[in-house]
Each structure stands twice: as structure tokens, then as C-alpha cells.
Fold this sequence. Notes:
The chain is an alpha+beta fold. It has seven helices and 19 strands. The model is unreliable at 1-20 and 108-112 (pLDDT under 50).
Amino acid sequence: MKIKSIYIFTILSFAFLIPTSAQEKILDKSGKKPDWITSTQRGYIIGAGTLSSSLETAKDAAITDVRKQITEAIAVQVKSVSESIITQLMNNEETSLTSSFNEATSSQTANRDYITGVAASKIEAYYWEYVRNKSNKNEYYNYYVKYPFSESELDKLVRLFKKKDQELTDLLESLLAVTENYTSVEEIEQCKAQLEKLVPLFIDERKNKAEVGIETCRSLLNSVYIANNGSTSEQIRYTLQIGNKIVKCAKKPQVRANCAEIKNKSYGNEINTINFSAENCYDEPGNYISVHYRIGTKYVDKKFSLDATDGETELKLLGTIRLSPEKGEIVLKITSKYNTPTDITSIELSNETLGLHLYKSITETISGEGTHNITLSVDPFEIQGEYTSAELNGFIEYKAKDKGEQKSLRIYRQKAVFLK
């Protein structure tokens, strides 16, 4: 917008704001009424404060009118930032919105004085009059100011706001990237807090993007859970996870034990540890150590059992073994009797008729009690003939994770199917 547009707006406004001489009687005035009040003044803004009860109030209203015209001129060209934000910055008002704006766009620029308010000291000329309305006998002040503000100054201010506007866009994009590339709970929490500050600053499609980002952060925080990661009879080992992704958390959880003595704890890592002694625990079910976090709007907790079966492991093979020779995949359904994390260390499968002899050293962990579908990767292999099913013999070797003796699960005439 050209600065001349501001003058036209001002002049048209006067047609309604300035009473005609037939309606008013001037009781007092600052001097001869200048021509600039009702004429276009290139490089100036004419501000008016009328119908005011005091001279000071009229002067303040004229300065406010100058700010309003500058604000409207900027807002026409910076359509993605709320006009109320521009107004508050021009008035040098410290509000939650301006604080968020300044925090989000913290880079320093030249000519910041244009953004810290229109100052009365910059007024080049003024004129006031004290008048009486002849029809209703009301008396009031009219105040007019001639404020220097060139097209180049407007252009600088528009460029400044557009630069700030781009900084807001860049910040928004970097925060949205955090919702996909987070590594810690605190990153997600900070991302959510910053997005909440950005939302009221936008009036375009970025507002919706920021709101979606907030909901994503909230969903991520509500999805955090605690997973066992190879706990032993003397140490709880756990991770905080969102889905299959491990996240760090600097917060210290509440730890409770019904009988065990907690020795030391280590938090804030991918794998968190609690060392303990269970010497004072009776050898019976029900002993536990619980871990309790407050994350987002919910509590996240897990109770780790310290019962008499700790460290014991027993696996059974269920159902049909599925093999994909071309892919080199073996799919097993295995049930674990105990809650002890267990490592499968090797598998051996054979069938003389098919010419099948497979042996693979592996490290596949079963997290605990229950039924688990396990997919093992081996080198692609071939079988003789056109068989789609057969019976297999062999062994699965396993042991309790990080401890315990090696055990064997015998596979005898277990039905298997071959997949493409």
C-alpha cells in the first residue's frame, strides 16, 4: 500500500469527524488553523482526536489515530499476522501475545524504534481548538497532529514484519518436524508449549497446522509407556517408549517397593536402571518394585514382579511353523511360562526327505510371559520336490536374558508349511 492511501483515509474520515463551522463555535485555539489538517501532506500522517473532554485526552486520541493508520497500512500487506498483534507492538504494549511474538521472533533488526511505539516527541506540528456545539451546547476539544512518516519508513516497517512473519513460519516448520524426530519426552513437551504460543499469532492456514501439531504432541505424550528391558534378580532395567521407539526422560519417577531395598537408580538414559536387594523379601508371589511417572496429562507406571519364579524360563512351541525359503524367513509361535525376558540363541530344523538342514545362531528376545509370534531371518534356502507342507525336527536353544543356563526346546515332527 502506498502511504498516500493513508492520507486519503484520513481526509475522508475528517468529513465525518470535524463538525462544520455552522455547528460549532470556537471558544479557544492554539493559533491559526493550518491548511495541513484538510490537505494531503506527502510524507506525513495526520492524526485527529475529536470530541474529547480534555486537551490531554484529545492529544492522546490523535496519537492513537496515527498508530491506527500505520497499523492498518501494515496489516493490508502483512495479511498472515493478526492486526491486533501489530497494534499492540506499535503501542509498545506488553501482553501475552506480544511476549509470544517477541519470543518467537527474537532476532535483532535495525529500526526497531518503529516497532516500539509512535512517540509524541516526533510530532512536527499540532493544532487544537476548544469548541461549543451550537445545537446541544456541549463543549469539547479537537486535536490534530502532523506526524512525519514517509513511504520508505512504511516499506521498512512492512519488510520488518514480513521478516518476522517468515521467522514464525520457520519456527512452526521446525516444531512440526519435532513431532516426527523427537528423542525425549521433554522435546515433545517443549514443542507443545511453543506451538500453543504460536496459535494465537496466526490468522492463516498456519493456525490450523499449529493446532494439529499440538494434538500430535498431546497424543505422543499420552502414548508413553514403560517397557521391561532385561531386568534381573538384582536390577530393574526399563525403557520409556512410544510404540517401538525408545525416548529419554529427564524427570525422576516415584519408585516404590513392598519389601526390596533400593540401592541406587539411574534415569534420563535410553535404558533406566534401579539396583536393589531382595534379601528381606519372603520367597512368595506379590513382591514388586513399581515405577511411576507423570507425563502429559496422565500417569505412566509399571509394576515389576519380584516373585519366586524370577530368572526362570520355559518355552513351548505352538501351532505350525511357517517357512519362506526364497525370503529366508521362519515364523514361530512360542509361549513363555514365566515373565522372565528370554533370549533365543539358535535354531536347528531338518527333514531328510526335503534335504533341509538349517542351523542359525541368533539373538531374539521374548519379553516375558505369554504367547509371542517370532520371525527369524536366515539365508534363503531350497527344498527338494514340490512339497507345500512337511514335518520338521530340530531344537531351539534359549536362556534367561543376561543370565541363566542354556536350555533346549526339542522340535519333533512339528508340522510346517512352505510359503512363496
